[in-house]
Specification:
CATH superfamily of the largest domain: Decaprenyl diphosphate synthase-like
Distance between the termini: 55 Å
Number of domains: 2
Strand content: 5-15%
Shape: globular
CATH class of the largest domain: Alpha Beta
Helix content: 40-55%
Radius of gyration: 24 Å
Number of strands: 5
Bound molecules: farnesyl diphosphate
Order of helices and strands: HHEHHEHEHHHHEEHHH
Largest sheet: 3 strands, parallel
CATH topology of the largest domain: Undecaprenyl pyrophosphate synthetase
Length: 271
């Protein structure tokens, strides 16, 4: 949800007003997601770094805005069958904000349409650290329960069986939701900024110059339409690439000389 500050700056307004307008975009986008039966949408609303590096006055304003957004929109969430959840180091947020967050998630828990996940006080590296700590804590507890040492426990099954990608995934904040298919980055930023680093390993990325406060449901649909034209390969060769394609490649021996003479930098040419 980038570009709130720039949106305000372009209009000679205070940054706060950009955030306020950005909160309006949230509801348009979420209701569009619900309308097209998108099962999950995750919004990066407030990072750990925002919390640490923005002026206190801006952080306080964002917390107030979040609370008033939640209080003002739960009815619309219910009307649109949207369930609200959160990821991040929520326990570090002010207690009144946590209370309102919990109230909103409980009030929408029975909805079965889109799950809106707000990433709040979220950082992906911290999430991976938290997941790793949780795995290790679980192992220590199990060793304790069995009355053996951690070393003995690991010797029984081997470390590979006790710690693999699935164990990490199961302890991420997102354990209950699938990895994103599409990441949309607003305001032309071409970086990931510590967002779901593990989960977006194979996600498609759509970058738009549009600032978040100008982003509406129609722009979500544009991004999805663009995504639908892409071929995802997950490290493979893709559906359109078959063994026949491989057969049609020129034999390596026939192109080897050309590659050595024309396509190899001089310092790498074999002597
Ligand atoms: C990034 O824009 C946006 C944020 C740090 C805050 C986003 C928060 C909201 C839109 C409102 C509260 C959240 C909800 C869910 C109601 P920026 O300030 O970095 O803008 P810039 O890149 O143009 O400076």
């Amino acid at each position: 949800m980038d570009g709130n500050g720039r949106w305000a700056g372009k209009r000679a307004l205070k940054r706060f007003l950009g955030h306020q307008q950005g909160a309006e975009s949230v509801q348009f986008v979420v209701e569009t997601a619900s309308r097209i039966n998108l099962p999950f949408i995750t919004l990066y609303a407030f990072s750990l770094e925002n919390n640490l590096r923005r002026p206190k006055s801006e952080v306080n304003f964002l917390m107030k805005l979040l609370r008033s957004y939640l209080m003002g929109n739960v009815k619309r969430m219910n009307d649109n069958n949207v369930r609200m959840e959160y990821i991040g180091r929520i326990h570090e947020l002010p207690s009144e904000v946590q209370d309102t967050m919990q109230w909103a998630s409980e009030a929408t828990a029975r909805n079965t349409g889109t799950t809106l996940t707000l990433a709040l006080n979220y950082g992906s590296r911290s999430e991976i650290v938290d997941a790793t700590r949780a795995v290790i804590t679980g192992l220590i507890a199990e060793a304790h329960q069995r009355g053996c040492s951690l070393e003995d426990l690991l010797q029984v099954d081997g470390l590979e069986a006790r710690l693999d990608e699935h164990h990490i995934c199961d302890h991420l904040y997102t354990a209950h939701i699938p990895d994103p298919d599409l990441v949309i980055r607003t305001s032309g930023e071409q970086r990931i900024s510590n967002f779901l680093l593990w989960q977006i390993a194979y996600s498609e990325i759509f970058i738009t110059d549009r600032l978040w406060p100008d982003f509406r449901g129609i722009h979500l649909l544009e991004a999805i339409q663009n995504y639908q034209k892409r071929e995802r390969r997950f490290g493979g060769l893709g559906e359109t690439f078959t063994d026949e394609d491989l057969d049609q490649l020129e034999p390596a021996s026939e192109v080897a000389e050309e590659i050595v003479t024309e396509l190899t930098p001089k310092q790498l040419t074999p002597r």
